[in-house]
């Protein structure tokens, strides 16, 4: 692999630490967690102890690194074919909302426990009838009347919530001024154990089985005023601000997954024989690998530039949308070709390519579907 100038020596040293953690604490157990449909909370504590959570926040809220360190964790998990481990949602999506929009009291209350893995975070934006279309959000947070005290009352439902079963803290999007549509949305912090919070059973998915995903229900859930995150009716602005990092994180996952499976598939075709010849000895196979390597190398150069821009604070929303679109679409194309080269073995659960192929499909949907991203990019013209 080409030298990546975006990663400094401290990033590379951290990569060795993260790779060891993945090899010793995750890979020996990932098949069991896939079967169980959830990652144990004990793993989160170990990840916190090893410095893998909230990498780019200062102590005690995180590990004191930058987004390059976060990228190392994202890529290590993806390259090892562990897309179901939900660290990135927790560290790179939930924690930044608290850090960027929370009060000092809110940061002190929740972020240190997220850094240690004691508190697992989830973000609850999507509803059964509202995904990318924020103005369609039906979850309501009404201000309490004078007789009820200060705060809000939350009612509604969220779905497809990653880390939802394990989550002790949920950042929830709700409408506070329905007449204003997307401009009348606010963010709230809901904690596990609050009266009126319900969690559905873990949802069955076609991939990422070790990632616990569920529905959340809010039934007259009373929230103190200090559980409002950011400004009231400013959630659209807050969410938009965080999308560039979210989409870059997804793009990095997709690219590293593709690179990891390309290496694994190359080993397979070197050893697998068909009609007395190695699969790699067929020109068709070599051409497939040549195309995949050329495209993934070009993608990596682009993503490293995006990563460098983001670490400098200059990554714009359109470039981030292009990163996610290119990475996830290419991931789907390459993994499908690699599965085909495995023949019938590619469809067997014991081979990693099958899990990678199924796990990858969601990446073209969440964080902004490919269709939404094309709309965003197309408006540049």
Q: Can you describe what's shown?
A:
- By secondary structure, this protein is α+β, with helices and mostly antiparallel strands.
- It is built from eleven helices and ten strands.
- The strands form three sheets. Strands 1-4-5-8 form a four-stranded mixed sheet, covered by helices on one side. The chain has a four-stranded antiparallel sheet with strand order 2-3-7-6, with no helix packed on it.
- The relative contact order is 0.11.
Order of helices and strands: HHHHHHEEEEEEEEHEEHHHH
Using the alpha-carbon principal axes, give the shape: globular
Question: Beta-strand percentage?
Answer: 5-15%
Please state the oligomeric state of the protein chains shown. Answer: single chain
Find the structural class using helix and strand composition: alpha+beta
Helix count equals 11
**Over all CA atoms, what is the radius of gyration?**
21 Å
Uncertain runs are none
Summarize the main sheet.
4 strands, mixed
Side by side, the strands of the main sheet go 1-4-5-8
């Amino acid at each position: 692999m080409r030298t990546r100038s975006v990663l400094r020596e401290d990033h590379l040293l951290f990569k060795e630490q993260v790779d060891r953690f993945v090899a010793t604490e995750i890979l020996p157990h990932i098949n069991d967690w896939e079967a169980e449909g959830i990652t144990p909370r004990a793993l989160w504590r170990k990840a916190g102890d090893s410095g893998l959570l909230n990498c780019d926040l200062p102590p005690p809220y995180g590990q004191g690194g930058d987004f390059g360190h976060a990228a190392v964790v994202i890529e290590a998990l993806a390259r090892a074919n562990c897309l179901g481990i939900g660290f990135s949602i927790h560290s790179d999506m939930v924690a930044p909302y608290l850090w960027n929009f929370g009060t000092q009291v809110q940061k002190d209350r929740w972020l240190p426990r997220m850094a240690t893995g004691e508190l697992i975070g989830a973000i609850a934006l999507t509803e059964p009838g509202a995904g990318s279309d924020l103005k369609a959000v039906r979850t309501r947070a009404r201000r309490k009347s004078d007789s009820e005290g200060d705060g809000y009352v939350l009612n509604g439902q969220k779905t497809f919530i990653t880390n939802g079963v394990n989550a002790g803290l949920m950042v929830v999007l709700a409408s506070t001024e329905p007449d204003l549509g997307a401009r009348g949305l606010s963010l709230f912090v809901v904690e596990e154990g609050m009266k009126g919070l319900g969690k559905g059973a873990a949802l069955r998915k076609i991939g990422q089985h070790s990632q616990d995903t569920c529905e959340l229900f809010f039934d007259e859930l009373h929230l103190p005023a200090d559980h409002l995150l950011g400004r009231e009716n400013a959630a659209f602005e807050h969410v938009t601000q965080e999308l560039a990092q979210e989409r870059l994180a997804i793009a990095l996952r997709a690219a590293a997954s593709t690179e990891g499976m390309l290496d694994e598939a190359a080993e397979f075709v070197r050893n697998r024989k068909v009609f007395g010849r190695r699969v790699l000895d067929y020109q068709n196979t070599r051409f497939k690998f040549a195309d995949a390597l050329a495209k993934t190398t070009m993608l990596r150069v682009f993503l490293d530039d995006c990563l460098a821009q983001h670490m400098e604070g200059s990554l714009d929303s359109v470039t981030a949308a292009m990163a996610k679109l290119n990475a996830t679409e290419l991931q789907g194309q390459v993994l499908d070709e690699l599965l085909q080269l495995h023949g019938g073995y590619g469809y067997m659960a014991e081979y990693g390519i099958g899990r990678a192929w199924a796990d990858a499909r969601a990446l073209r949907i969440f964080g902004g579907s490919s269709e939404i991203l094309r709309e965003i990019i197309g408006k540049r013209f």
